[in-house]
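As a warm-up, study this chain.
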Amino acid sequence: MSTEYVITVNQEACQKCGLCVESCIHAKLVQPDGNAAPQVVEGMDCIACGHCVAICPTGALTHSAFASGSVRPFNADLLPTADQMMEALRARRSYRKFKDEQVPRETLEQVIEAARLAPSAHNSQTTSFIVVEDPEMLKRVVDLTIDFLDGMAKFFRHPIKGRIAKMMGGDQVKGVMPMIPVFEGVVELAKSGADLPMLLDAPAWIVFYSAKNAGYGAVNATCAMQNAMLMADRLGLGTFFTGFALAPTQRGFRLHDLLGLDHEQQIHGALAVGVPKLEYKKWPSRKPADVRWI
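Now compare it with the structure written out below.
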């Protein structure tokens, strides 16, 4: 269901430039007469993208989704050049060794702010966040993951259960089978007391989730994670995507219950965050882009 927004145009302040009309992708604004101020079309959908208020040169247009003072000019002098942006992308790495120190709350808030600003389908802004800092909770996440991986390995190694799963599971089971030795290796590492690849002693863990029925929820969360990783890197933090720690979400809701999430919510990804122990001064080249120009 679409939200009914109130859009008003100050007739006196409006320059009648028509920029708001041109920027409105849903034709909520029209300007039949170039000498008159734009008109608001009732009944037309509006996703509150903010294009109209962002492009109005005089502030003549107001939108109920944006409170007074919430539409501000950005500082163009602070924007990175294309070369600077590319260098930042080259320099970013996934870090898996962290110093034994907490990340300040205000620094994590900057990471979340960057994630919040990520684009989302239909401007739905579906992604929510959980930041886990409590050491005991982080340990419970690791323990839960080890228990899940151990259970999966034993299930598929079982002479009867594993065979039935292989016969009935299709492509999904085929995708899991090559990972069973990896699962077993991780469990053995846990028993030996070695550092584990779930969180690797990172002091913070950011979980990205949305409602299950959120349109393009996974895509939106992925965009948010990319923003978060780039900002974390510029703040001197290291991150890595914690794939193993999300394994329990594939079967059941044990991780949901641990984090206090509703079963109608979907976890899309999570990042371990900490102060990196190592510093890289070089970037190894990636394989060439696989591109087809049509």
